[in-house]
Specification:
It is a single chain. By secondary structure, the protein is α/β, with parallel strands linked by helices. The chain is built from nine helices and five strands. Helix 5 (117-124) runs parallel beside helix 7. The relative contact order is 0.15.
Length: 224
Amino acid sequence: MREVVLDTETTGLDPEDGHRIVEIACIELLNHVPTGRSFHRYVNPEREIPDDAFAVHGLSTEFLAQHPVFAAIAPDLLDFLGGDRIVAHNAEFDVKFVNAELRRLGRDPLRGAVEDTLVLARRRFPGAQASLDALCRRFNIDLAAREKHSAKLDCELLAAVYLELIGGRQPGLDLAVDAALASAVNIVRVHRPARPHAATADEAAAHAAMLALLKQPIWLAGEA
């Protein structure tokens, strides 16, 4: 089963107010385990970055002006998503922003299934904090590199959190590798004749000799 963890950074909270995506990242999962394939782009939002947004992600207007606009990255993004299930934390926020960008380009909105890890966390731990930071601390996932919000880093953290939310990874078990091998390798089964099950004459004689040494075997008790 293929899923895609997705996260965005933006200029604000609502695309209806003219806010835009400034960074987007995706990580591919097979059977809930990262495969190593990912997608990451900084995006020129074609507008100034408000001070409060800069405080969150640290991406400046000058830095983002050097990167492509969303229209330029949209084909590669949609190709990576592939219509498979999206996994996101507070998924409504990210999906709303992606769909707003697609709408500006006259493209159809995302139509794949969406798994919201915020909903999963609140269902599993009612009343507990359910932010990405809180969940990382709960599952002992290293947060040392998270000084500011980053779509790329947050995707990596969320992939680990998601696996824990759905039950955790069994030690030594790599389902993604198994799935990749199963799809990439043609297994040839070689026919072998059945092994003989009847005892040889020597084995039967040795067994009889061993039985003769036993005194009052329990399987003969009923015959006395």
